[in-house]
Amino acid sequence: MNSKHLLFFLVFFPEFLTAQILPASFDLRNYNGNNYVTSVKAQQGGTCWTHGALAAIEGNLLMTGVWQQAGEQGEPDLSEYHLDWWNGFNQHNNDDINPPTGNGLVVHNGGDYRVTAAYLSRGEGAVREIDASSFATPPLRSDTSYHYFYARDIEWYTTGTGLERINTIKQKLMTEGIVGTSMCVGGFWSAGNIHYQPPSDLNDPNHAVAIIGWDDSMHTPAENPGAWLCKNSWGAAWGNNGYFWISYYDKHCGQHPQMGAISFQNTEPLQYDKVYFHDYHGWRDELPKCSQAFNRFIASDYGLLKAVSFYTVTDSIHYTVVVYDSISNGVLQNPLSFKSGDINHTGFHTIDLDSLVTLIPSNDFYIYLMLSAGGQAYDKTSAVPVLLGSSSRTIVSSSAVQNESFYMDTVGHWTDLHGIDSTANFCIKGLSTKLLPETSSIPTGNNSICKGEIFTVYQIPEINYASNYFWTISPANAAIITNYDTIAEVHWNSNFTGLAQLSVKGSNNWGYGNTSPSLLIKVNELPNPNIGNDTTILISQSLNLMCNPSFSSYLWSNNSIDSSVFIVATQLGLGTHQVWVTVTDSNGCENSDTLTIQVINDVSAENLNKPDISIYPNPANDFIYVKGISRNNEEDIEMSILSTEGSLVYNQTINSMHEPVIDVSLLPDGFYFIKLISKNQTYFFRFIKQ
Q: Which CATH architecture has domain 448-524?
């Protein structure tokens, strides 16, 4: 078995790491030929607790290979100073007070692993060093460019006064990577950079470091051999290239209940978009005799509730998680998701739900937690110890409101935790991913319309998880769209013809969902019927009007539905008439053509427009001249102007040798006939006065 396969075996089957096979010495810097420890760093200010915590998380990312799998380059390198500025416990920022400054720990001057756990559990970090590295000034709290890493499980251990649980810590070192711890820096050093604070010493821990290995035979000032190999944060020039030893029997290392041995496990890129919580400061106290509790939440966005998280305050518990839809008469109703299991160690745990829960904005949901032992962890205003050796504690304010956290009292009633402490909330969280609108159906409506259509209406079924709708048409010059959520009015460009694509997508607070399949709409050209030019006919005549025979239907002004129509002048009567036809083509598009027919009296039609005699100009404004009439000096010419109905409107006898001239300036505009009588011959001419 090669070293790579052995590592896989050890990581995924820790139950085989019994006391019989644990090595007498171990160093994560050379574990089967691999190094699972990141570089030694040099802390600024009182930030040892951030270095101890993030060294452990970086080690876990190395051990599991997740850092490289996430596409990150080099060794894991997380930002201690983002944690330092934005942990929520300090005077720079505390979201539980308003304004969120001026209360709590001094920045760069202390913290602990529970502070780190609260920061991580809210999804605030950890972030990479290249994202937010500023010590002197606060980096951005959040940014879309940041890469976030989330420790799904954080466990607390102690070796026990007789080292009865020391193998647990050793096993976790070999399977999960570096373990955070603490110590008291003072006069407890011996040669070889070995530290031992006797248990009888009264000094509290004032420094955080990270355990990376052990040696059972290492001699220290303690009575018995055995020491932890630790990574410090004072630079590589200090100690044994930045490393040192602490006795197994040290007062705090491996022994302190909150800072003795902490393992950050299953660290992964943050996969959740929203963390629902009321416990901004995490685990600050316990309700020891409480086995059942729930938190009520109101969804702020569309989402899928995928996981819950909580703390266990003792080892070896059985848990049951149920997500409920409502509560009525003090009874939780309509279970949506159920999960139960066993947890071996005290700490923070993230549990994936087997059945995901859809969250709708403004709807409430309830996360119920039953723990078999230890009681329920909760947040409250608390005195936080400063990990710098100070005997004093700093008050960090928390806030809560009624109707958020409830516990089952001794008589089986749900009771608001607010009644015990008005600043308290249970440490029960919901973790969800964003739920973008889902658009899969195609818009419905008329997909074949005619040029000049004013507007058409299109519709799509309600898009799941959408608050708003955004319609688009391509090309953009085809139409203007008026949105009405699931209905859109498309106001067409009167000149547009061709193909247009109409689509819609939904949006909510998370952004836009996918775009629907496009409805292809054809805007058809209108048919072009042509029944000829305007004309004049005699009352005795008829006219056959024909339209293009390729159209689907016809409707003439006389109600004929054929492609041609026979016009009889006597049926129209004398005067001006309009004849029209409306056609419909195969696309259902309509268009019309109209012509004007002038019906006139049948007056000596045989001489109408005789080719050897002419009048000009025609049309005329003022005068009309007659050309081509043969006459002698004594000949008289009678000239008359008739209306189209045949009535006389002008008469004159001319005996001049000059070319005949008629003054028409006073006539109304319209159609007329000129009647000329010469040598007993009568001639008719049609003209237009304009």
A: Sandwich (2.60)
For 575, the token pair is 């005067």
According to CATH, the topology of domain 605-689 is Immunoglobulin-like (2.60.40)
The pLDDT tens digits of the residues spanning 98-154 come to: 999 988 999 999 899 999 999 999 999 999 999 999 999 999 999 999 999 999 999
Q: pTM of the predicted model, to two decimals?
A: 0.78
What CA–CA distances, in Å, run from 488 to 476, 513, 667?
A: 15, 18, 57
Reported as a single tens digit per residue, the pLDDT across 444-496 is 999 999 999 999 999 999 999 999 999 999 999 999 999 889 999 999 999 99
Q: Kindly report the length of the chain.
A: 690
Query: In this structure, which topology does domain 25-87+124-264 adopt according to CATH?
Result: Cathepsin B; Chain A (3.90.70)
Per the structure block, which two tokens stand in for 661? 């001239």
CATH 2.60.120.820 placement within the chain: 285-382+393-434
What's the topology of domain 535-600?
Immunoglobulin-like (2.60.40)
DSSP E strand stretches across 585-633: 590-600, 614-616, 623-627
Collapsing DSSP to helix, strand or coil, 66 comes out as helix
Domain with CATH 2.60.40.1930 in the chain: 605-689
Residue 77 contacts residue 144 (beta carbons within 8 Å): no
What single DSSP character describes residue 484?
A: E
Say if CB 227 and CB 218 are below 8 A apart: yes
| Residue 184, H or E segment | none
Respond yes or no on whether the N-terminal peptide bond of residue 99 is cis (omega within 30° of 0). Answer: yes
Does domain 285-382+393-434 sit in CATH 2.60.120.820?
yes
d(C-alpha 441, C-alpha 461), whole Å: 8
